[in-house]
Amino acid sequence: MVAATTTTLKVGVLALQGAFIEHIHMLNNLAEVSEAIPVRTIEQLNSVDALIIPGGESTAMALIAERCQLLEPLRAFVKEKPTWGTCAGMIMLANEASSAKKGGQQLIGGMGIRVNRNQFGTQKDSFGIGLHMPEIVGEEPFHAVFIRAPVITDILSDDVKVLARLEKQVGETKAETIVAVRQNNLFATAFHPELTRDDRLHKFFVNMAIECYNNKQ
Ligand code: GLN
């Protein structure tokens, strides 16, 4: 007998702060997404199969999540369910963050990575660049938009797979940093893929999530 397989998912986008609408628009255009909803409550979180944590401001997002009593439910969610953090969302998913807010900031955690916030400077230092990510989007480069973006400075677990690196001229030297990783059901990118018209990364995440469910059966 062939096991029943999942082919569509209900996907949530954490909507406490930041660029969540753009993710919802992109998800709504994918055949594999039955519904895409903003997530602001525990009930909404419990109703989705997979979650995107968007870019924005990780300090503000953490404070609001704490106030809405969503931090612990989010920590439980990411232990099991497919979740993708973009930019500030990647910071939220990291187990450790440098250049954190004075006095520290709450993270959801779950990924064995250390990130450094605001690696490339302020808003005016934002940039877009073609990233080569053959394992996830094929040979054609993906135009990645970096806005006060973090990078991954350390990999803290053997389960973390590096999916994209960025080579950037910093002063006299070219420095290479890690900007996309996967750890089992968790995916993180340092940039904003929802600000382009290219939905290849959203497709990758939804297919990754479907695969997570089908492999569990
Ligand atoms: N610098 C922001 C932070 O630390 C992230 C920026 C972004 O999400 N575009 O949370």
UniProtKB/TrEMBL annotation:
Belongs to the glutaminase PdxT/SNO family. It catalyses: L-glutamine + H2O = L-glutamate + NH4(+). One of its GO terms (molecular function) is transferase activity. It comes from the Eukaryota. Keywords: Glutamine amidotransferase, Hydrolase, Lyase, Pyridoxal phosphate. GO terms for cellular component: cytosol; glutaminase complex. This is glutaminase. InterPro entries: Class_I_gatase-like, PdxT/SNO, PdxT/SNO_CS. CDD domains: GATase1_PB (cd01749). It holds the Pfam family SNO. It comes from Lichtheimia corymbifera JMRC:FSU:9682. GO terms for biological process: pyridoxal phosphate biosynthetic process; pyridoxine metabolic process. The active site is at 87 (nucleophile), 192 (charge relay system), 194 (charge relay system). The lineage of its organism: Eukaryota, Fungi, Fungi incertae sedis, Mucoromycota, Mucoromycotina. HAMAP family: PdxT. Gene3D superfamilies: 3.40.50.880.
